[in-house]
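Example record

The entry below shows one chain as it appears in the dataset: sequence first, then C-alpha cells.
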Amino acid sequence: MNLKGRDFLKLLDYTPEEIEYLVDLAAELKDKKKRGIVHDLHKGKNVALIFEKTSTRTRCSFEVAAHDLGMGTTYLDPSGSQIGKKESIADTARVLSSMYDGIEYRGYGQEIVEELAKYSKVPVWNGLTNEFHPTQMLADVLTIKEKLGHIKGIRLTYMGDARYNMGNSLMVVSAKLGMHFVACTSEKYFPEEELVKKCREIAAENGGSITLTTDVKEGTRDADVIYTDVWVSMGEPDEVWEERIKELSPYQVNSAAFENAKDTAIFMHCLPAFHDLNTTIGRQIKERFGLSEMEVTDEVFESSRSVVFDESENRMHTIKAVMAATL
C-alpha cells in the first residue's frame, strides 16, 4: 500500500483498506518498539507540530513517534506561531513546507487544516479539529482489535455530546470498517444530519450501521464498546455547563450502563476524563455543580473493563504509522 505524500485530514478521505493498513502498520511498529528493534525509517527528516490547542497525549505521541522514526521536531504552541494572525494559513503552509518534511495541526476548524494541506508541499496531519479527530480513531481501532480480536461487526455505543469531533469520527470509522455505531444521547446532541446520511451510505457498503437513540437501555444493548468524552470544553460559560450537565447526566457511563452490554464489553475514553476530584478542574466542577464525577464514574474508569490507558499508548503507535506511511 503506497500512501507516500498523502495528507491525513479525516477518515472520509481514506478507504477501509487504507485505514486497516495503517492500523496493521501501527501494530507492527508497536511490536518492534516493544522488542527494542530500531525503526528510524525517516532519519534526517524534520516535522513541524502546530498546536493552537494544547494537548498531553497528542504532543507526546507525535514527538516520541517522530524521534523513533529518526526525525527532529519543532513544537509551535499557541504563542509560538503567527498562523492566522500575522501570517495567513496559506503563507504559513508555504513557509513551513519549505523547511519541514511534514506538518501536524491541532486546533479549531477543519477548514484550517484543509487549507494548510492545500498550500503545503509536504503531508499535513490532523491532530484534532472541531469536526474530526482521525489519529484518535486509529488508536481506538487498534485498541479494540487488541482487546476484542476483531473490528468488523463490533457494536460501539457513544454516550454524551455526539455533535463534534469524537462523535463524528467514531461514526465515520465505524461506517468505514463495518462496525455498528450507536449515538446514545439527547436528540439535540445527535451528530449533524448530513454526515449521518453520508455515514449510513458508507456503512451499508461495508456491513455496518448507524443508530441514533435517546434510550440508554436500547443504546447499550449488546454493546461491545461503550465510549464517552468530556461534556464541556474548558472556557465555555457557566450556562453551557449547566445545560450540558442537565441534558447529559442521564448518559453518564456508570455500572448501570453496562447492564445490557456484553459481558466482554470494554470502556473507552479519549482523555482527559472527569471521574474524580484529583484535578483542579474536577474540584471546580464539584464546587460549582456538586458533581464528584461527570461523564464517567470512577468505578467504571478504574475497573477491569477500562482500556483508556491502552488507547492512550496506542496514540503514539498509530501516529507513528501515519507519519511512516505518508513520508
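Notes for this example: Strands lie at 46-51, 72-76, 102-106, 124-128, 155-159, 180-184, 209-213, 225-228, 266-269. The chain has a mean pLDDT of 96.
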